[in-house]
Design a protein that fits this description.
With 299 residues, this protein is α/β, with parallel strands linked by helices. It is built from eight helices and twelve strands. The strands form four sheets. Strands 2, 3, 4, 5 and 6 form a five-stranded parallel beta sheet that branches. A three-stranded parallel beta sheet has the order 1-10-7, sandwiched between helices.
């Protein structure tokens, strides 16, 4: 039986190595979107939190992941995990892979911040596979949030994720959809448009994540969480005859146009993260009657 945690790796592309289902029960896809955040948080019980605190998790991210594992703990101590961030030490890069090899002597969630190089998704591959780390043999899971930052070659990453799934059967992997931005005038007086590359190209990327991995690998639908209100209505726009998502404006009150930072919005991703881990590691504690709707893009 697989006994591990998640690796939220995002990527785009084809080239497929065959991906075996990674869910505890392959007939029940592990999927966390806005519906889960707004209706399923009750499954994150005290009993499950005890389980999650025994896990070793590696998180590579940009700014959206900095406080992901610790934010709920700041709201309520019963959701706190042992969280260690390396962001203060700078950005991980090909020339600066500064995580210590003995990092996972005990259970914790470790976050490091990626630089913006084109091959930034390869750092996690190195950390899992190579000396002196070989974290793939030590951790319970990993989470990687990747965004397009001017480059459009993330198609190369899907095969890397598939190979990790194949080579580390004792690790439960998960994949994340793409960040979306809000539209309007930002703090610097610049207009952030809804038809940005993050929303257009990132939207196409997210669609591929859902189509490729739903029912096979746990999915953290960041796009859906950021673009859907608690009442189920979505924030979207039309471009060239197609509908795309954007961040709901009420989630971004300081107008940086990038982050969920309102009092309610700032809780959405941490809640989703904990629900995801619960579905991956506490399946036996979740009511059998729980039914999570399929993402609308796949209906």
């Amino acid at each position: 039986m697989k006994t591990i945690l998640n690796c939220i790796f995002v990527a785009l592309g084809s080239l497929g190595l065959r991906v075996e289902a990674q869910t505890s029960n392959p007939s029940v896809p592990i999927y966390v979107g806005a519906y889960s955040v707004d209706h399923e948080f009750s499954i994150v019980t005290d009993e499950c939190m005890k389980v999650l605190r025994t896990k070793k998790i590696l998180l590579g991210s940009r700014s959206w992941g900095l406080g992901l594992g610790s934010a709920m703990g700041r709201v309520d101590k019963k959701y706190e995990v042992n969280w260690e961030s390396f962001h203060a030490k700078g950005y991980v890069s090909a020339a600066n892979m500064f995580l210590p090899a003995d990092l996972f002597a005990g259970p914790k969630v470790v976050q490091y911040t990626l630089d913006t190089s084109k091959n930034r998704w390869l750092y996690m591959d190195d950390f899992l596979r190579k000396d002196p780390w070989k974290f793939g043999e030590k951790i319970d899971g990993c989470l990687q949030l990747l965004y397009t930052v001017g480059d459009k070659n993330m198609e190369d990453y899907f095969p890397i994720l598939d190979a990790l799934i194949r080579d580390y059967p004792n690790v439960k992997f998960a994949v994340c959809t793409h960040h979306v931005n809000a539209s309007g005038m930002d703090l610097r007086g610049n207009e952030q448009k809804e038809d940005s590359a993050w929303n257009i190209y990132g939207g196409a990327y997210s669609d591929q994540v859902l189509a490729r991995y739903y029912g096979k690998v746990a999915i953290f639908d960041l796009r859906d969480i950021a673009s859907t209100r608690p009442d189920g209505t979505v924030c979207s726009f039309e471009s060239n005859g197609k509908t795309y998502r954007k961040m709901c404006p009420e989630y971004n009150t300081n107008k940086d146009m990038l982050h969920l930072n309102s009092p309610d919005g700032s809780k959405r991703l941490p809640k989703g993260f904990l629900i995801l881990l619960t579905k991956m590691f506490c399946a036996d504690l979740i009511p059998k009657t729980l039914v999570t709707p399929k993402p609308v893009q796949l209906k």
